[in-house]
């Protein structure tokens, strides 16, 4: 991912947004499985609301990924420049971290948001959402993988943990 161009990452993000929109029915079906699951039983109304996806929220996910795609690419940008007393030149330049791991609660939107932000910055990411959103996260991960492949980037750049085990 660190070797990918800004154009490749932008294309991937736009392809991910399109894949999420195209797989809307599958994502909504997976979300209904989550809402009906034992893991969601006993959740407060506010927590269930955070878990729930609908057409408006899917459109919001697509818009958020598209917004990230339209952001300026910061990789390689010089942040500061200084010359030490011994003549050594020191530059601070923005570079990818490598692989980011995120553990988050049961908000399916975090899956696409975190993936988009990490990809924009040239990072791979491993995502572990709450067990209540397991099916939703898997469906979003599948759509993200499709977008990555369409842009010629490795599907494994975004991995959603396939288990709820700790």
Please summarize what this structure is.
The chain is of the alpha/beta class. 49% of the residues lie in helices and 14% in strands.
Describe it for me?
This protein has 166 residues and is α/β, with parallel strands linked by helices. It has 6 helices and 5 strands. The chain has helices at 6-22, 24-36, 45-51, 55-69, 108-120, 134-150, and strands spanning 78-83, 89-93, 99-103, 124-128, 158-160. Helix 5 (108-120) links the parallel strand 3 (99-103) and strand 4. The longest helix is centred in the first third of the chain and has 17 residues, at 6-22. It is elongated, with a radius of gyration of 18 Å.
Write the layout of secondary structure elements.
Elements: H1 6-22, H2 24-36, H3 45-51, H4 55-69, E1 78-83, E2 89-93, E3 99-103, H5 108-120, E4 124-128, H6 134-150, E5 158-160
Helix pairs in contact: 1-4, 1-6, 2-6, 4-5, 5-6
